[in-house]
Amino acid sequence: MPTELDLSRISTSLENVPILTSLFSIEFLGNTLAAYLTAIVFVFAVYLVSKIISWILKNYAKRIIAKTKNGLDDAVFETVHRSVTFILVLTAVYFSLRSLVISASTMDILVKVIFVLFTFKITLEIERFLAFAIKEYFEPLANKQKGFAKAFVPSILRVSKFIVWALAFLLVLSNLGYNIASLLAGLGLGGLAFALAAQEMLSNFFGSVSILSDQPFKVGDFVNVEGYSGTIVNVGLRSTTIQTIDKSMVSIPNKTVAAANIENISKRNAYKVEQTLAVKYDTSLKDLQAAVEMVKSVIRKDKDTDSETMRVNFVEFGESALEIKVFYYITDTSSYARILDVRERINLKIKQGFEKISVQMAFPTQSLYIENAKDLVQARLRSKAR
User: Fold this and answer.
1) 287: Cβ–Cβ under 8 A, 6 or more apart, which residues?
2) Does 94 score more than 90 pLDDT?
3) Which class in CATH covers the domain with range 268-356?
4) Under a CB-based contact definition with an 8 Å cutoff, are residues 90 and 46 in contact?
């Protein structure tokens, strides 16, 4: 890229041509016609070079990029392709202006104008790139999950655009000599209130972005989050709605959901069941063994359990019953309702099996034994007779 010194040498060479000396020596605003012409020719030359680069990119680089499956590199290419001519020409204009004799105040204004144009172009291309990336990445994710708000992806796009342009605006203000900190401080309490409200809104918004990108759950999943257990009904821009087992609707802010430990029961490949079956103490050893084998058989034969990891054992002489410990996994975890159906089916078959082998299930009872009960009764009767 020619510098200020190079452009001055070109201008001087043109002025030394005898025929053109008188014409090019004409001065206007402190610069000769040759100096202006040199600056214009330089800018035009850079423009031609940028077009050549653009043509090479379009006819060669684009063919290579088109072979990839990832659409993100296409967006990067389009951003560079659209920007190359503008940026190179704007840079050439800057160096051309620096080669001319211009007052410091005027040059300062022109440089700031160039900076504003440059910032505008870069911001515009960043906005376009973000729009493509968001639609390419988030839209398919949102379409897969029917319960996500329809305005979710457009809202991400609008907020992203706002942030990009707001940052660009602050950058331009700073370059123009404004103190950004003082401007923000000048907003006062109203600005503080707005900032706090915006912070809350943005926290929930980015929480929803996090939920959509990480996908810890989808609509219809049964989850435990922040002490609530239920089915995901909707994921909106501000909150996630859960329908609990008692049919209550609970809305949890997305910033809270994004930061919480989420237990997604629907994503389990198996659901663990542990329970204790109590049978009466007067159950014979033979009947107790038959009860254990019956429970094993019920669980083993069920199509929705893992028979390999199942455990059924007589483990405890309880206070009021003989205790059989049951442990097994339910393999059908498509929904919590399905898990409950499987547990009910198994429990009913176990109950039926107990009835078939005449083993009675126990409930908490206490037996009170009194020594010499006959003597105590007679003594009590004698005391009443007196």
Assistant:
1) 357, 358, 359
2) no
3) alpha beta
4) no
Length of the chain: 386
Whole-angstrom Cα distance, residue 352 to residue 38?
Answer: 102
Any alpha helices (H) in 57-103, and if so which ranges? 62-66, 72-99
Same fold, 187-267 and 268-356: no
Cα separation, 280 vs 359, in Å, equals 8
pLDDT tens track for 10-21 = 555 554 555 555
Nearest residue to 151 via CA among 234, 209, 237, 220: 237
The answer to whether residues 76 and 130 touch, using CB atoms and an 8 Å cutoff, is no
- 311 phi and psi, to 5 degrees? -140, 130
Q: What CATH number labels 187-267?
A: 2.30.30.60
Task: Classify residue 242 as exposed, middle or buried by CB count within 10 Å of its CB (0-12, 13-18, 19+).
Answer: buried
- Token pair, residue 15, equals 């002025």
Per-domain residue ranges of the chain? 4-183, 187-267, 268-356
Of 2-6, 34-38, 130-134, 296-300, the one with minimum mean pLDDT is 2-6
Quote the distance between the C-alpha of residue 176 and its chain's center: 37
Do residues 233 and 242 touch, judged by C-beta distance below 8 A? yes
Query: Any residues with CB less than 8 A from the CB of 187 and at least 6 apart, and which?
Result: 194, 195
Number of H helices, E strands in the chain: 13, 10
Element (H, E) at 249: strand 249-253
Helix (H) / strand (E) containing 203:
helix 188-214
Q: How many C-beta neighbours within 10 Å does residue 217 have?
A: 24
What does pTM read for this prediction?
0.50
Place of tokens 């009910």: 344
SS3 of residue 86 by DSSP: helix
The type of residue at 81 is H
* Residue type, position 21, single letter: T
Those residues whose C-beta lies under 8 Å from the C-beta of residue 60, and which sit 6 or more positions away, are: none
**% of the chain residues with pLDDT over 70:** 73
- Among 211, 196, 194, 195, smallest CA distance to 256 is for 211
For residue 325 the two structure tokens come to: 């410990």
Q: The tokens of 90 are what?
A: 């704007």
